[in-house]
Amino acid sequence: MTALTASAAGTPSLVQSVDWLAVAPVVLTAAVGLAVLVADLFVPERRKPVLGWVSVAGLAAATASLLPLRAGDRTTFCLPGTPDTCSYTADHFALVVQFLVLGGALITALLSVTAVRDARMPAGEYWFLLLSSAAGAALLPASRDLATLIVALEVASLPAFALVGLRRGDRLSSEAALKFFLSSVTATAVSLMGVSFVYAATGSLHLTQVADRLEDVPGQLDTLAMAGVALTLVGFAFKTAAVPFHFWVPDTYVGAPLPIAGYLSVIGKAVGFTGLILVTVIAFPAYSDIWGPALAVLAALTMTLGNAAALRQSPDRPNSAVRLLAWSSVGQAGYLLVPIAAAAYSDRDQIGSTVAYALMYAAVNLGAFSVAALVARTKPLHRLDDYRGLYAQRPLAALALAFFLLCLAGLPPGIIGLFAKVTVLRSAVDAGLGWLAAVMAVNVVVALYYYLRWTALLFRTPEPAAEATGAAQDPADPGSDTEAPAAAARAPWPVTAAIVLTAAIALALSGAPQLVLRFATGSLFAQ
User: Fold this and answer.
1) Cα–Cα separations (whole angstroms), residue 384 to 115, 445, 450
2) Where in the cell is it found (predicted)?
3) How far apart are CA 20 and CA 108, in angstroms?
4) Among 301, 310, 300, 329, which Cα is nearest to 447's?
5) Which of 9, 27, 79, 110 gives a 20 to 30 Å CA spacing to 384?
6) Is there a contact between 401 and 387 (Cβ–Cβ < 8 Å)?
7) What is the rounded CA–CA span in Å between residue 358 and residue 269?
8) Are 152 and 143 in contact, with CB atoms under 8 Å apart?
9) Which residues in 328-344 are b (16+ Cβ under 10 Å) and which e?
10) Of 19, 17, 1, which Cα lies nearest the Cα of 9?
């Protein structure tokens, strides 16, 4: 009645319709998660795997629901009387990141089907948490106000804490979850303080209004606004694993179930980089002289420390393969930060380089984790030495992993990796950040060593002792050396599907890398 009366008096009505098609990817993912949680109460134990397939189907449907939105011209939850100021915008930028998030969650779900069964994790809780996190991650790129951004960040993060620690009785899993939780909560609290400072200085939470009002902040509020800008970036920098907010990464990846480690390495970073792009380039361009140099320094430190730590991984050390992927993801985060920092010094279209690089990284990194999940079925210590001679046992898996590693290294035939690195490097040069381009070039060369070392292991002759060790770890027959080849021949088809799907995407991107960049460049500012 109040809304109707206000409308009759000539003021804007507070009643508005919701564009359900625009929010369909997020709503569908969340709805399937709730349905799985309720169904878990009634499904008998022997039928629990059905919940996994329902989740896979739900994520596939959510990904397909992006197709009707490809025009990138839908908005909803707008302020009354100001249709251009909305809380949810399904533009090209949001659609690309949502495709990355939902596609990555779909690959994770395929890897999880067998992992949940083999590790005897609670199926209902696992799938509900995964879908809830994916829904929050899909909401974030479409968010256009600071409140929705923080809520989406937490919806994506809180279920991830539980997923990391879901392996009951596993000390490493519990420690990883606790470290992840405490550090993330601290970063979020700092970000919330920053958002409150920004709101106090501008009187708005919508990104476009914040940008307009920060252009003319009263002198007495300038220090408050600068502090708010700096503190707001902390939570998103934590999600990207940028130095010095990276310390949680290696232990969390080792302690988490392998599919969740892959999920965090891709979707977790997508959430962080999306948030950084939205708050810096859209909300805080007036303070680019603050966040631009800060992000440039963070990029240099992150790629350098990540690659240096990856070099130190010993091939015979347990979990060395997972730790190498963890530190590699820190190094890759440094590359992803470069175009965002460059946007402070030149036109904002540099952001397209980050989006294009993120798409490449998501496909090949999830592919590497998919092959790791396959190898871990017979060699669960996750050592780099476990991959020695993989080509002799699983030639297609070895070729796929070699392709993924060469993409990450930026070497042919991984054309998409080379193209992405050149694009990022060029963004730094165009912005006048020659020193950052030089640091990146050095780090790319350094990273070649550990990527090529792992690739070379795949094609070496297996050592007899290593083969015996692998056979002794075979859960099907702990004491038989002769069972190793038979065990290696069996690959669960969901894991195989994940490897094939990621390899197909990486090959497609390598075949037409310019299409990715053309679609991504300027998509955030198409309207």
Assistant:
1) 21, 21, 11
2) Cell membrane; Endomembrane system; Membrane
3) 26
4) 310
5) 110
6) yes
7) 9
8) yes
9) bbbbbbbbbbbbbbbbb
10) 1
Alpha carbon separation from 24 to 95, 135, 511 (Å, rounded): 12, 10, 31
Residue whose tokens read 């109040």: 2
Give how far the C-alpha of residue 411 lies from the chain's centroid of Cα atoms, to the nearest Å: 23
Highest mean pLDDT range out of 78-82, 445-449, 519-523? 445-449
Answer yes or no: are the C-beta atoms of 497 and 110 closer than 8 Å. Answer: yes
Tens of pLDDT, residues 460-512:
887 665 444 444 444 333 333 333 443 455 788 889 999 999 999 888 877 77
Distance CA 460, CA 219 (A): 66
Lowest mean pLDDT among 240-249, 288-297, 403-412: 240-249
User: For residue 295, what are the contacts with CB-CB under 8 A and spacing of at least 6?
Assistant: 276, 280, 337, 340, 341, 344
* Amino acid in position 22: A
Distance CA 85, CA 259 (A): 38
Whole-number CA gyration radius for the chain:
23
- Evaluate the CA torsion angle 350, 355, 359, 364 in order and state its sign: positive
SS3 of residue 83 by DSSP: strand
**Structural tokens at position 364:** 């090949």
The Cα–Cα gap between 458 and 388 comes to 5
Side-chain-side CA neighbours of residue 481 (13 Å): 7
Cβ pair 378, 495 in contact under 8 A = no
Report how far residue 77's alpha carbon sits from residue 116's, in angstroms, rounded to the nearest whole number: 38
Please answer whether residues 66 and 73 qualify as being in contact, where contact means their C-beta atoms are separated by less than 8 angstroms: no
Residue 111, number of CB atoms within 10 A of its CB? 27
Q: Which residues contact 190 (CB under 8 A, 6 or more apart)?
A: 231, 234, 235
> What is the token pair recorded at 441?
């070039």
Q: In this predicted model, what pLDDT tens digit does every residue of 121-142 receive, in sequence order?
A: 888 899 999 999 999 999 999 9
Sign of the torsion formed by the C-alpha atoms of 179, 181, 187 and 190? negative
Q: Quick one: which H or E segment has residue 429? A: helix 415-430
How do residues 350-375 score in pLDDT, each as one tens digit? 777 788 888 888 889 999 999 999 99
Residue-wise pLDDT for 302-329, tens only, equals: 999 999 999 988 888 888 889 999 999 9
Report how far residue 180's alpha carbon sits from residue 247's, in angstroms, rounded to the nearest whole number: 9
Evaluate whether 409 touches 447 at the Cβ level (below 8 Å).
yes
141-166: pLDDT as tens digits: 999 999 999 999 999 989 998 899 88
Phi, psi of 450, rounded to the nearest 5 degrees: -75, -25
Using CA atoms, how far apart are residues 357 and 406, in angstroms rounded to an integer?
Answer: 15
Give the whole-angstrom CA distance, residue 414 versus residue 424. 16
Give the sign of the dihedral formed by CA 352, CA 60, CA 527, CA 293.
Answer: negative
| Amino acid letter, 396 | L
